[in-house]
Design goal:
GMP Synthetase, Chain A, domain 3, 5-stranded parallel sheet, about 55% helix, elongated
Length: about 450
């Protein structure tokens, strides 16, 4: 039988302990001219064999004349071994399995919902999501170093938690160290005091397959930590290990940091998570409400999406508060209830201004603020710009020159835009409906 011949070859290559522990339990459940499928007792076992022995198995298959290419590992049913009971009144130290690394993963407590399926992908975060997913799957086509820049509550921690969740569940043999820069500094100081810096270096140089570090900007001014990190990064990157950093600012804008460290942080892919657009905010609100078993109407979802922008944690706070209030009153959430909750989180709505109207209209037409301020004259940009100026004149007391500043234009352009939209409203019922809808939405937010 093919697998028996392969095992015979492998028995000559490995020590008795390694062979009995990692090769003997494998069972061949299928083989043909193209592929071989081997079954192990559990996902961890299969992951370890794949990472450490699969190449040797493929070589052995070729040695016995197998011409196919595919070798698959799956979890199958195996005989349960009788547990060995220690002698009573005799303490035994825990034994380490052969060929297993001494160092274990160090992973922060992971949020159970911070996984890839729970992350809402939009234009503002698509690149960061794709990069993290590739890193979690060990995609070798991507740079082994990734830096994610994002403000508070925009999802950078969600993505790093998702990477850790994926690796620990799909590749449990991977040595993953997940720390904040503050934790790394504290660990280093502790090792210096205890004269155990060799252990620190061994952990991050030789016993690390994936390093996740959050809040890198906190390294500012910590010269010794920066020096040790630079040394560790050189070792990890030279070996092709995976490294993911997150920070509130990009590497080039971190103050008081060594140029060498800055260069290493920027050596791979640097991506930014921007605040989600309105459509993505609606999807996030809908998902979080569903997770909290809260049924929200479309009107309430849109109101929350318009009022709460940026930090997604404020959305979570609003959902939790809304659920508590609805439960207290034993009623379904209504708009008045939502307005009260939102006012407690972000305060009363600011008085309408040209800037606020510009930002609102940009979200409604799915264009960027930079587009509205640019010199572009394409219809998809010029029309929202003109509508914004019209609404700013209609709904605020600001002077024409002040409205123009919000769009990098002078007062004559504002006058022209107001005239264009006024004439369009008279001619077109569709445009009139659009403008009235925008006016209603803006006034309802006050």
């Amino acid at each position: 039988m093919l697998w028996q011949r392969v095992k015979s070859v492998l028995s000559q290559k490995f020590s008795d302990s390694d062979f009995k522990l990692w090769i003997e339990p494998l069972q061949c459940v299928h083989d043909d001219a193209q592929s071989v499928e081997l079954a192990g007792p559990d996902p961890y076992f299969c992951s370890w064999v794949k990472d450490n022995y699969l190449t040797d198995i493929q070589d052995a298959l070729q040695d016995v004349g197998f011409t196919g290419e595919a070798v698959r590992l799956s979890v199958g049913e195996t005989r349960k071994a009788q547990p060995l009971l220690p002698e009573p009144e005799k303490k035994q130290s825990q034994l380490r399995l052969p060929s297993m690394p001494v160092a274990r993963s160090t992973v922060r407590t992971l949020h159970p919902r911070y996984t890839f399926p729970e992350f809402m992908v939009g234009e503002s975060n698509a690149l960061a999501y794709s990069a993290c997913e590739a890193m979690a799957n060990g995609d070798s086509t991507l740079s082994p170093c990734l830096f994610i820049e994002a403000g508070t509550g925009l999802g950078k921690s969600h993505l790093t938690h998702a990477v850790a969740h994926h690796i620990t569940s799909h590749s449990p043999g991977t040595r993953l160290h997940y720390v904040t820069s503050q934790q790394l500094t504290s660990e280093m100081v502790r090792n210096i005091k205890n004269n155990t810096m060799e252990q620190f270096k061994e952990k991050y140089h030789n016993q690390c397959d994936v390093l996740l570090m959050e809040d890198v900007q906190s390294l500012a001014g910590r010269t010794k930590t920066q020096s040790e990190l630079a040394e560790a990064l050189d070792v990890l990157m030279d070996c092709g290990k995976r490294v993911i950093f997150t920070g509130a600012v990009s590497p080039r804008n971190i103050p008081d940091i060594d140029d060498g460290v800055r260069s290493r942080l920027s050596s791979g892919l640097v991506t930014t998570i921007n605040p989600p657009d309105r459509r993505t905010r609606c999807l996030i609100i809908e998902r979080k409400a569903r997770n909290n078993k809260l049924d929200l109407s479309g009107e309430i979802i849109e109101f929350l999406a318009d009022r709460i922008q940026g930090d997604i944690r404020r959305v979570e706070s609003a959902i939790i508060g809304l659920k508590a209030k609805a439960s207290l009153h034993k009623s379904v959430p209504d708009l008045d209830m939502v307005k009260e909750i939102v006012a407690g989180i972000i305060g009363q709505r600011q008085e309408l201004s040209a800037v606020l109207i510009r930002n609102f209209v940009a979200g409604q037409f799915n264009v960027s603020i930079e587009d509205l301020q640019s010199k572009a004259r394409t219809k998809t940009i010029a029309f929202p710009r003109q509508v914004s100026m019209y609404l700013a004149r209609k709904l605020t007391e600001e002077a024409l020159s002040e409205i123009g500043k919000a769009f990098n234009r002078d007062h004559s352009t504002v006058v022209h835009s107001i005239r264009v939209i006024t004439e369009a409203i008279v001619r077109s019922g569709s445009i009139r409906g659009q403008v009235e809808h925008l006016v209603e939405r803006l006034e309802n937010q006050s």
